[in-house]
Each structure stands twice: as C-alpha cells, then as structure tokens.
Amino acid sequence: MAKADFEVPKLNKYPEIPPVVPGAMAHSKPYVAKPAFQEPLNFPGELPEDWKDGAIEAMGDLLGKYRSLRVHLDSCVKCGACTDKCHYYLGTQDPKNMPVGRQDLLRKVYRRYFTFAGKFFPKLVGAEDLTEEVLDDWYSYFHQCSQCRRCAVFCPYGIDTAEISMAAREIMDRIGVGQKYCNEIIGKVHKIGNNLGLPEAALADTLEGLEEDVEEETGVAVKYPLDVRGAEILLVTPSADFFAEPHVDGLIGYGKVFHEAGVSWTLSSHASEAANFGLFIGSYENMRRVSLRIREAALELGVKRIVFGECGHAWRVAYNFLHTLAGPLDFLDSRYPVPQHILEFTWDEIQKGTLHFDKSANDHMVITYHDSCNVARASRMGDEPGGQFKIPRNVIKAVCNHFVDMAPETIQEATFCCGGGGGLLTDDLIELRVKGAKPRVEALQNVIEAHGVTHMAAICAICKSQFGKVLPYYELERDMIVSVHQLVSNAIVLTGQDDPDQGERDPAEVKGESE
Amino acid sequence: MSIVVNGKTLETDEEGYLADISDWEPSVAETMAQQDDLELTSEHWDIINFLREYYEEYQIAPAVRVLTKAVGKKIGKDKGNSKYLYGLFPYGPGKQACRYAGLPKPTGCV
C-alpha cells in the first residue's frame, strides 16, 4: 500500500540542503473546522465581515500577554541560520517552510500595524497589510509547522517559531478560521474526556480485555484499574494508548512496571487523556480547561501522585505548565516529582532493583531511539541536565541487548520531528507528513544499512502513529515503530510468571541477565 | 460531500465518512469499496459487522486490540492480528473499515 499521489522524497546517504521551490506546498491546507467544532471552544463559527479588525485586535491582545511573542517578532536579523533546519523545508523545498519565511508571514503584518516604521514606511521595512491572500498563506503555512522548536536551537537569538505559529493559530481561531482536526478533538476532550471520544464503558471494556490478555500470556493477574479511589498514583496517558498499536503495548508495559513495583495506581475516565491540543492552537483557555480535568480527577480519586504516560506534547504541557494551569497541586506527595514521567518512574525502579528483566526477549530487534521533539526540546526528566535524553536510553539499554543511536546531528536536542506533531497528524495533510518525515527517515535508513537496525522506539503517541503511517511510503515496515514500554513489557519478568519452557520462573534467577 | 447509494444521495464529511450513521445500509459499504477498487468478501463483512455491533453497544469503534481479539476468537487465532486486518483493509482497519461500516472516523493521535 502507501500509494502516493505526490512525489515521495528520495532518501540520500548524506543530508543535502535542497534548492528552493517557491510555492511548492501552497496547496497544502487542512480542513477548516465547521461552526459545530468551533463553538464548544468558545470561538466564532465563521469568518465575520470585520475579520481584519478582529485579527489585529487578537494580535494586539497576544502581544500584550506574551512579551516573548513581541521579542520573537522584533529580533530576527535575517542571518539565515534557521533556513536549513526545518524538516518541512528539507522535505518540501518550499521557502515559506524555512523558519524565517514562516515567521515573516506574521512579522510583516505585525510590523504594519504595531511598529512606527511599518505604519509610516511599510515598504522600507517589509510591512504588509492583512489581506485575504495573507490569511490564506497563514492558514496554509502555520499548519505546516509542527512546533518542534528545532529551528530555535540553531537561532542565535533563540526565536521560537513554535510560539509564533501557536499565536497565528490562536488569531485565526478568534476570527472563526479553525482547523478541523485539532478543534474537533479538543471538543471531544471537553465533552467526553479524551481525544477519541472513548466513553467510560468502552474504556472499561478495553482495559478488562488487556487484563485477560496479560494474564493469559504471563499467568500473572496484572491489573489495569479504572477510577479506583484511594490509589496512590493517577496515570494520565494518551487515549491512543487504549486504542492503537504499538501504543497499547506500551500501556501494557506501564501496568507491568506498576505491578512489579508494588504500587497502587489507577486510570481515570474523567481525565482519560494526557494529550492537550490546546497547546497546538495556542489557546490558553482551552489548554487550561483540558488540564483542569486532571486536577479534578486527582482530587476526586484522592491520589497522591500523577504520572504521565508516553506522550510528547502532554509532557511538555505537564512539565512546564501543570502547576499554572491546574494548580495548586499541594495535595500531592512532594517527595516525588509533581508531575512525574513514566520513564522517570521506571528508571527509578530499575535503579532500586525492584524490576527484573530477561533482555534476550528483545534479542530479535536492533533498536534505535527517536527523541520526540517536545520531550527533547521543551522539557526535562530526572534531576540532571539532559535527563530527557539519558533516561529513555538508559531504560532501553536495561531491557535490550542491541541499541544503536542515529547520527548525532539528528538526535537529542537536534532531533528531527516525526513530521506529524503539532496538530498535523491528519490524513488531509498526508503529503506534508510524508515529506516532513524525510530527514528522520533518512537518518533511520542510514542506521538500518550500517548497523542492521530493525526497530525504532519512541515515547510519543503522535510519533508512533505518524511513523506507522509514513514509513511504508519509504518502503519500510509499518511495525518498525515500537513503544519504549513495549520493550520493557517484553523483557520484564513478573514475580510468579510462567516460563513457556520451564514452568514458573523466579525473578531472582534471571536478575544477572539484566545487569 | 456526499455519496450516491442505490439512487439515494447520502451526506458525508470531507473525508467520506457518513454524516448520519442511521443512513447506513450494506450497499453503502459496497459502494465505498468499489470506489477504492476493493471487492468485499465475507472476511471483510465479518469485520464490518463486528464494528457495527461494537459501535451500537459502546458508541465508539473498538480499539485495535479489542478487534483483533474478537477476530481471533471468531475466525481463528492466526487471524487475530493487525497484519491480517491490514491485508483486508490496506488503508488501515481503524479508518477504512470504520468508513465502510458507517462509523465516524476515529480521532486523536491514531
């Protein structure tokens, strides 16, 4: 499958900076949200007649609220350092996908209406009126930014294009031009509690099925509890973990880790989603409404800790903003990180020696690791700088014998986005997603050829779905992408677990294998 | 957007999913499959029927694992995996099969 009605980029042995093709992606536009998807988010349903005034007013409001936005718009010196850093430029060759090109779409309007020079001498400073054509470009190209912040790493001023694209989307939402994919989903979270619209009964049924499967496979009654009052830990995880593969294999892994660690935990049907698409559309109000569900669930269930599952931008929101959006969280146990990432939890338990692994269970794989952009460049883990790079790798190495990193300029803080982040993981943007994945897939292809890599692990629901969809376009297998906790799940030896060859297995006996 | 089935025009969303699930009848699936150059066999119908039954009970499509497990129980363990489902529905069982079954498209990070 993976028939494309566009040209799939050719992978190169070495990264090449391609020549510009102006307008190459001008046709790429996601479906616009209907009024029914706008209104639950408190946005107007349609473009009003006085939309220009509305847009300028919204821009002024955001400039007043976020000083950083004004700094980002003021400080570019057109040095060119960012021009070859965006995966969407590298994959599409459209100069408006160069970070500076994208920023300028908003910057030229900012200058026209908010700076002295732009008001009186617009041509001298590249200031332009807001017109329908400009709005059209905004809608197209601010939905070609995955807000991954790779460009910001290389900008000498640290200009964050992600923040500019969030602001642009917020401005468009406020004049009734929203994106269907993000806004329909946020509406479902407000109404039902998760991106899928998965109701409580279906969630309970799905979790029950997992319990049966794990018990059948291991002989151990690992629980996947829902809405258990008084549990110590509330696990907040992307709803894709309930629904899709390989996500669910990661969820199975979290449950096994909690079981072996001997802690009580629960999921919540009220806060059955870690993802927070309010971030993608730059809407503080919607981000807050989504986050508050987590607070409400934590209080209702009386938990002492909140742990987040494998979701990139959820961790970005939780790590940076949960206290602001849903605080105070002083009812939680301050001896643990508030909130905590599942990888921090698992790595702690590995260091304490409570988990035992048979690493040979992953011997059929040679693993590489894709740093998810939001974890890599917008958060941390653990208590040391770079923990967000080290801890996932430490966990993988604790459960796998064969691990290889991709090229250094494509990982850690320089990681390439999967191509589907930031609210772009939708079929109407498939061309953009396939092309934007090129730099990552190129680096992957190189370790496949050089080191026989067979699988790539990730800790983000979007990355997992995106790769499952786009890898076949590059003639790679859909199921090459795995969850980190899927690897943990494969290797973990549960107390009392059946051994398919030798009957019951004693974790103490296999301890040596994990060291 | 819309689709014409047995002379009736049925409303769909931009991506071809039925706007109103109660418009569904078996020929909707047949027509959609024809447009994708796919011939529906009894194996396809097993999946479509299960999706509809599950949706009726839970108002959502089943998770992939719920679906593969049900297929494994009903048709045979060797077929209870997503590889089998992708073989039947190359655009992805979650999306293509849901569309044929008249269900809304699963949304989110899937």
Mean pLDDT of chain A: 96
Rg on CA atoms of chain B, Å: 13 Å
Sketch the major β-sheet of chain B: 2 strands, antiparallel
Helix/strand/pairing category of chain B: mainly alpha
How many beta-strand runs of chain B?
Answer: 2
What are the secondary-structure elements of chain B, in order, as H or E?
EEHHHHH
Number of helices of chain B: 5
Largest sheet of chain A: 4 strands, parallel
How would you write the strand order of the largest sheet of chain A? 2-1-3-4
- Kindly provide the radius of gyration of chain A, computed on alpha-carbon positions and rounded to a whole number of angstroms: 23 Å
Report the principal-axis shape of chain B.
Answer: globular
Shape of chain A: globular
- Percentage of β-strand residues of chain A: 5-15%
What oligomeric state do these chains adopt? heterodimer
Alpha-beta content class of chain A: mainly alpha
CATH names the topology of chain B as Arc Repressor Mutant, subunit A
Please identify which CATH superfamily of chain B we are dealing with.
DsrC protein, C-terminal domain
Q: Provide the domain count of chain B.
A: 1
| Ends distance of chain B | 24 Å
Biggest sheet, spatial arrangement of strands of chain B: 1-2
Helices of chain A, by number, come to: 23
Question: What does this protein structure show overall?
Answer:
The complex is a heterodimer of chains A (515) and B (110). With 515 residues, chain A is mostly helical. Chain A is built from 23 helices and nine strands. The longest helix of chain A has 19 residues, at 200-218. Chain A is globular, with a radius of gyration of 23 Å. The two termini of chain A are 42 Å apart. Chain B has a single domain, classed as DsrC protein, C-terminal domain (Arc Repressor Mutant, subunit A, Orthogonal Bundle). Chain B has helices at 26-35, 42-58, 64-75, 82-88, 93-100, and strands at 2-5, 8-11. Chain B has a two-stranded antiparallel sheet. The mean pLDDT of chain B is 95. Classes of the chains: A mainly alpha (515), B mainly alpha (110). The interface between A and B is medium-sized, with 41 and 24 residues.
